[in-house]
Amino acid sequence: MSDPAATSTDDAIHIEKLYEFGERLSESKDKSQNVKDYQGIMDAAKTSIKAKQLAAQLIPRFFKFFPELSSQAVETQIDLIEQVQAIRGLPLFCKDTPEYLSKIVDILVQLLAAEEIVERDAVLKALMSLLRQDVKASLSALFKHIGTVEEPSTDELIREKVLSFVRDKVFPLKAELLRPQEEMERHITDLIKKSSEDVTGAEFTMFMDFLKKLTIFGDKAPSERMKELVGIIEGQADLDSAFDVTH
Predict the structure, then answer these.
(1) Which residues, 6+ apart, have CB-to-CB distance to 74 below 8 Å?
(2) Contact, 111 vs 87, CB < 8 A?
(3) What is the DSSP track for 60-71?
(4) Global pTM?
(5) Cis peptide bond prior to 222, omega within 30° of 0
(6) How crowded is residue 240: how many other Cβ atoms within 10 Å of its Cβ?
(7) Contact yes or no for 146/163 (Cβ under 8 A)
(8) Which of 50, 47, 119 lies closest to 84, judged by CA?
(9) What is the pLDDT of residues 164-203, one digit of tens each?
């Protein structure tokens, strides 16, 4: 049986060490020289709950200074994912290293089915942060989980959660998120066209209602744009006879 007093002392030592590592890194003029401090933070992440919570905040903060430890840092943060602080820190990995964005979106998408309300709220906020960082890459990563006929989504619950996120969080903020407007409206249209090959009638209606609100399909749009919309509807009508093309 473990001694609570000894455990408490160990916790205090780990926390004190983490503060030391963080302080030295903050004060260092050339942080890349402080490899031992950063490694020390990752090592401490394997100890107590409180140490994990603090490490989950420190790892993303100094991540960009240690590219040689990037894979280890991301994996360590993923191991801490039961901590809300770790979820909140995930978008920070992509600010200076955008190549991690798709991987981080994938991790957050897996967490969308979380039962804990606090955790789910953190996941939604982290996804919105990534969308604001790089909307094009984030949308591409999200739509992978909605699937197409060629590559159907493997997890139906995750697919439903991603569709709900896109409907409730992305579509209402189209004016803010889809910038530059024409380029990003075209990008999300292409993603929807691919996904609409394998959706229910209700999902298809949701997508079409959204597309009709885009500027590129507005009143001043050239006739070929309207033909494009009609073509999408006709393609779906072949797959799902229950869908009313006149809708």
Answers:
(1) 93, 100, 103
(2) yes
(3) HHTGGG-GGGHH
(4) 0.89
(5) no
(6) 12
(7) yes
(8) 119
(9) 999 999 999 999 999 999 999 999 999 999 998 888 899 9
What SS3 class is residue 152? strand
Is-contact 2 41, C-beta < 8 A? no
Tokens 């809708």 label which residue?
Answer: 247
Strand pairing partners for 147?
A: 152
CB atoms within 10 A of CB 51: 23
| CA separation for the pair 65, 38 (Å, rounded) | 9
What's the sign of the alpha-carbon dihedral 229, 232, 235, 237? Answer: negative
Listed as own residue / partner, the contacts of 71-78 with beta carbons closer than 8 Å and 24 or more positions apart are 72/42, 73/38, 73/42, 74/100, 74/103, 76/42, 76/45, 78/107
- pLDDT tens digits along 81-102: 999 999 999 999 999 899 999 9
Given a contact cutoff of 8 angstroms between Cβ atoms, the answer to whether 93 and 100 are in contact is: yes
Helix (H/G/I), strand (E/B), else coil: 147: strand
For the ranges 37-46, 61-70, 216-225, 231-240, the lowest mean pLDDT is seen at 231-240
Q: How far apart are CA 120 and CA 224, in angstroms?
A: 42
Specify the DSSP class assigned to residue 167. Answer: I
